[in-house]
Amino acid sequence: MEDSYKLKKVISIGTVSEITGLSVRQIRYYEERNLVEPDRTSKGTRKYSFSDIEQLMIIANQREEGVQTTEILRELRKQGSNQSVRNNMIRGQINAQFNKKN
């Protein structure tokens, strides 16, 4: 998969802070609000992906526009649900195509 590098959680919170301009405190707050989910090392260090960074930038922009974190979370869940529905539809179409009697 060509975008798989975007999903690897290898970036420290300090680097994420530098890249995004968000404070470490803000990033942790967004984690507490379930808006971003970093991995944790065995020692508890947070690790983020490039996708997480993109997500944090979207969140920061929405917050600047006055959108509440509860609304952002609701929208993220809705998008996740829509993605899940789309994935199921695609799987169904693929299965239907391969299970056709010729």
Automatic annotation (TrEMBL):
Keyword set, alphabetical order: DNA-binding, Repressor, Transcription, Transcription regulation
Family annotation (CDD domains): HTH_GlnR-like (cd01105)
Transcription recorded as keyword: yes
Stored SUPFAM superfamilies: Putative DNA-binding domain
PROSITE patterns cross-referenced by the UniProt entry: HTH_MERR_1 (PS00552), HTH_MERR_2 (PS50937)
Ranges for domain HTH merR-type: 10-78
Pfam families assigned to the protein according to its UniProt record, in alphabetical order: MerR_1
Protein name, as recorded: MerR family transcriptional regulator
